[in-house]
C-alpha cells in the first residue's frame, strides 16, 4: 500500500466519484475552492442508480472504481461524492488504503441544526436511509427537533438525465414531497444529485433557497483541509489564506463525513475568499478529466452533461 508522503504527490490529481453526474455538485465546489488542482471525475452512470441496490453491490462497484483509479492515476485524494457509496464503502476503503486522503459525504444535517431549524426533511436514496450510519446521524441531531428521513426512489434520474426543471420534474418532485409543505422549515439534500433539483424541491416545499442544505461546499472544504494538513495542496498559500478567513468567519457550512476541526466559516464569507467562478471552458479543459462508464455516444452525452453541470 502506498502512503501520501513525497512532495511530488502534490502534482497528483484529486479523484472524485459518484454513481453518475450527482458528484458534480461536490466537484464544482472543490474546483472553485482549489483552482490550482487537477481533478478526475468518474461517474458510474452505467450502474446508476446505486441507491436502489444492495449495500454489497454498491460496495463492490465503488471499490472496483477506486482500484481502477488507483492504478491509472494514483490520486492524492479519493473523494466519494456520493452519500450512498460513502455509506457502503468508505469504511472498507480506509482499511484498504491506509494513510491516504479519503473523503466521503453525508447528509448536511449539522448546518441545518446549527442554523436552528426545528423541522427538517432529509431527502436521500433508499439505501442511504436504511443504513446504520444514517440512523446514527439522525440520532445525533434529533434531540429537540423533528428530523424526517425520506427515501426518494426515482428522483436522482431527473438530474441524471439532465431534466433539471420543467413541468414534469416539478410534478414528480411535488408528488414525492408535497405533503410536507408547511410541516418543515428546512430540507437537507442527502444525495449529491439533488442539488441540481434545488429549484423544484424548494418550490414544492414552498421554502426559500436558504432553507435548502447540501453537503457540497462542506465536503470541498474538508478536502482542502486534509490536503493542506498533509502539505499536498498545490498552492500552499491557499491553505493559509483559508485558515485566516476561517478564523474570521462564523459558522461551519455543509457537512462532510468528518467534521473539520477548527474550520468555521459562513458560506457568504467564503464567496469573498474564493471569489468569482473560475470555471471557464478553458479552465475545465486544463483542470478536469471527466470519465463515465457509459460507452460510446451515451458516454459522450453524459460528459457533455457533466460540463454543463459544472457551471
Ligand atoms: N448521488 C448518489 C448519492 O449521493 C446516489 C444516486 C444513486 O445512484 O441512487 O447518494
Largest sheet: 5 strands, parallel
Q: How many angstroms does the end-to-end distance come to?
A: 36 Å
Q: Please state the average pLDDT score.
A: 88
The computed structural class is alpha/beta
- For the largest beta sheet, what order do the strands appear in spatially? 4-3-1-2-9
Number of E-state strands: 9
How many alpha or pi helices? 14
Which percent bin holds the helix content? Answer: 40-55%
Rough outline: globular
* Approximate strand percentage: 5-15%
Poorly predicted regions are 1-5, 248-275
> Over all CA atoms, what is the radius of gyration?
18 Å
- The sequence of SSEs as H and E is EHEHEHEHEHHEHHEHEHHHHEH
- Which molecules other than protein and nucleic acid are bound? D-glutamic acid
Summarize the structure.
The chain has 311 residues and is of the alpha/beta class. Helices cover 47% and strands 13% of the residues. The structure holds D-glutamic acid (DGL).
Kindly list the characteristics that best describe this protein:
311 residues; alpha/beta; 5-stranded parallel β-sheet; 4-stranded parallel β-sheet; 14 helices; 13% strand; globular; disordered N terminus; binds D-glutamic acid
Amino acid at each position: 500500500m502506498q502512503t501520501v508522503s513525497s512532495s511530488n504527490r502534490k502534482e497528483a490529481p484529486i479523484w472524485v466519484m459518484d454513481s453518475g453526474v450527482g458528484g458534480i455538485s461536490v466537484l464544482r465546489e472543490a474546483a472553485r475552492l482549489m483552482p490550482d488542482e487537477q481533478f478526475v471525475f468518474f461517474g458510474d452512470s452505467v450502474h446508476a442508480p446505486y441507491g436502489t441496490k444492495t449495500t454489497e453491490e454498491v460496495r463492490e462497484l465503488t471499490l472496483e472504481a477506486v482500484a481502477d483509479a488507483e492504478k491509472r492515476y494514483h490520486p492524492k485524494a479519493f473523494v466519494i461524492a456520493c452519500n450512498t457509496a460513502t455509506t457502503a464503502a468508505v469504511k472498507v476503503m480506509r482499511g484498504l488504503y491506509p494513510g491516504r486522503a479519503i473523503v466521503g459525504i453525508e447528509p448536511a444535517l449539522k448546518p441545518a441544526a446549527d442554523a436552528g431549524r426545528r423541522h427538517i426533511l432529509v431527502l436521500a436514496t433508499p439505501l442511504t436511509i436504511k443504513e446504520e450510519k444514517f440512523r446514527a446521524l439522525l440520532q445525533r441531531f434529533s434531540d429537540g427537533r423533528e428530523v424526517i428521513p425520506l427515501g426518494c426512489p426515482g428522483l436522482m434520474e431527473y438530474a441524471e438525465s439532465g431534466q433539471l426543471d420543467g413541468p414534469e420534474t416539478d410534478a414528480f418532485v411535488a408528488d414525492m414531497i408535497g405533503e410536507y409543505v408547511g410541516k418543515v422549515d428546512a430540507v437537507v439534500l442527502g444525495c449529491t444529485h439533488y442539488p441540481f433539483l434545488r429549484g423544484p424541491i424548494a418550490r414544492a416545499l414552498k421554502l426559500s433557497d436558504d432553507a435548502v442544505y447540501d453537503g457540497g461546499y462542506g465536503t470541498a472544504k474538508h478536502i482542502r483541509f486534509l490536503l493542506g494538513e498533509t502539505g499536498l495542496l498545490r498552492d500552499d498559500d491557499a491553505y493559509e489564506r483559508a485558515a485566516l478567513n476561517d478564523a474570521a468567519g462564523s459558522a461551519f457550512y455543509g457537512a462532510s463525513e468528518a467534521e473539520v476541526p477548527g474550520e468555521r466559516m459562513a458560506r457568504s464569507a467564503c464567496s469573498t475568499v474564493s471569489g468569482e467562478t473560475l470555471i471557464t471552458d478553458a479552465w475545465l479543459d486544463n483542470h478536469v478529466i471527466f470519465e463515465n462508464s457509459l460507452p460510446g455516444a451515451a458516454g459522450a452525452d453524459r460528459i457533455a452533461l457533466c460540463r454543463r453541470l459544472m457551471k
